[in-house]
Amino acid sequence: MGKKAPSMPAAPDPVATANAQGAANKETAFWNAMMGNMNQETPYGKISYTNNSNGVYDPTKPPQFTSKVELSPEQQQLLDRSQANDLAVQQLGTDQISRIANAVSTPYSYSGLPAAPQYSDINALSQHGEEALMSRLAPQFQRDEEALRSRLINQGIGQGSEAYNTEMDRFNQAKNDARMQAVLVGQQYGGTEAQQMLGLRNQGIQEYNAQRNAPLNEYTALTAGQQIQNPNFSAPQAGNAQAGDIQGATQNAYNNAMARYNAKVAGQNNTTSGLFGLGGSFLRSSGGSELASKGISSLFAMSDITAKHDIKHIGSENGHNVYEFSYNGDSKRYIGVMAQEVEKTNPDAVIEIDGVKHVNYAMIGVKMREVA
Question: Cβ atoms within 10 A of the Cβ of 291, count?
């Protein structure tokens, strides 16, 4: 029996494919978890894992792991001592609470500290500095003035004369300049004294705050100690299994099946005419009108051995035996193949119409032709 028109491949069931992919993903995740949670031992201790599945895969429940860290005897001793020290320090901090309560219950006050300098204080200090300086300059000014008067009289410059008045004006100007300088020096003295007063007050404030906050700072320092850390374990270099792409493989298989199906349909439905260069005489002799009426391409030629007579083997082409023959009821001679032989090696190139086998010569690479 010749090969009939191909059937379209069935599309994959998306639900079944998704379920299969989900099952593969869950099993892969299980083995990744088993490989990733590996026991480790170091000089500082060890970490071990136990799971609820005992290493047996159960798709109905995910694996759950419990990790246990065990320190080496030396590390455990250090931990015990550290914890004991922490408890002792915490107790000291607790003892400080009564001192803290006493400190914070006292109203915050700067009374008793050096007073901050006021503007009037600065003026008074400046004036005091000026007066102190002038008290030293005044006797000197008096002696200099008496000496100047004696010198002018001895020089014959009488009191009230223009020369006398000029010299006295010059002396008084120098005296006035000295007084102004005394005022400036007095202001500098007052500013310096005020800065010293302010520094003493700030120092007193700092000492007061430090004394008031000391209990609280001591408590914070005692109760903020760092805890001992567990030994660090290196990250395990576990394998990472990947689930097979079931959905992709299924879709690819379906796509390939569709491609083969489309190729077969295209081969059977190719409408290229005149392939064999035999015109209407070949169609009539090979049943071409019957093929056309059934929607079959003229590429398929009637090649059933039962439809031929006077068959003579003349050689081979493209791996197929080639014969010279005539169709039943016709004396014209043709060269071609026998459908029964082609069907054994290339069944896709053979179809059966009304019990008669036909061959697609384009698919087998052989040219059917009329003997000249």
Answer: 20
Q: Do 209 and 293 share a domain, yes or no? A: no
> In total, how many domains does the chain have?
2
- Of 191, 223, 255, which residue is a domain's last? 223
Report the distance separating Cα 178 and Cα 173, nearest Å: 9
Tokens found for residue 338: 């026998």
Decide which of 223, 253, 282 is a domain's last residue.
223
Residue 57 has a pLDDT of 79
Task: Please check whether residue 129 is in contact with residue 185, taking contact to mean a CB–CB distance below 8 angstroms.
Answer: yes
Maximum pairwise Cα distance, the chain: 181
Task: Output the CA torsion sign for 342, 346, 347, 348.
Answer: negative
Residue of 102, 89, 103 whose CA lies nearest to 221: 89
Question: What's CA 270's distance to the chain center, in Å?
Answer: 56
Instruction: Verify that 132 and 187 share a domain, yes or no.
Output: yes
| Residue 152 in domain | yes
Please write the tens of the pLDDT for every residue from 176-233: 888 888 788 877 877 788 788 788 888 888 887 877 777 767 767 766 655 545 556 6
Q: In what order do the strands lie in the sheet with 300-302?
A: 300-302, 356-360, 350-353
What lies within 8 Å, CB to CB, of 145 at 6+ separation is 171
* Beta-bridge partner residues of 336: 323
Which two structure tokens, joined as six digits, stand for 148?
A: 């100047």
Residue 356 lies in a domain: yes
* CA geometry: angle 138, 141, 146, nearest 5 deg: 130
Task: Establish if 349 belongs to a structural domain.
Answer: yes
Q: Tell me phi and psi for residue 171, to 5 degrees.
A: -65, -45
C-alpha torsion 107→108→114→118, nearest 10:
-110
Given a cut of 80, whether residue 363 has pLDDT beyond it is yes
Position 360 in a domain: yes
Query: What are the DSSP E strand ranges found in 52-148?
Result: 65-71
Residue where the block lists tokens 């209407």: 280
User: Are residue 279 and residue 196 in the same domain, yes or no?
Assistant: no
What percentage of the chain carries pLDDT values higher than 70? 80
Q: Are residues 289 and 210 in the same domain?
A: no
**Predicted TM-score (pTM) of this structure:** 0.33
Whole-number pLDDT of residue 231: 59
Look up the domain containing 309 and give its range.
270-370
CB 308 within 8 A of CB 328: yes
